[in-house]
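pasting for the record
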Amino acid sequence: MTGSLSASRGFLAGIAAVFTAAALPAFAQSVSGVYRAEGRNPDGSSYTGTVQIQDSGGSVQMQWSIAGQSYSGNGSRNGDVVWVDWGQTHPVVYVRMPSGELHGTWANGRALERLIP
């Protein structure tokens, strides 16, 4: 009886570990770095530039350089989703793809941006 009780406890501990690991949030890799930006404005015109991102424990700072103009914003990262307030009515919202690219929308979804590491 002691052997089967010990085996049962081991089995139950293993099951509990699996469910505990599944319940924990997955922590995404940092998005810090320099990216090439490719985007489409709300009017359909395209643009390119560079973006520098500093990711410090979920707090994100971004610097865009687009067509000779600079923009900056601050935001947060939760897993693979990044929200950035850049001084407009609506934030830029990105999702980190498995490739490391960030795909985002701005202007309330009327504009798109892809950041390529």
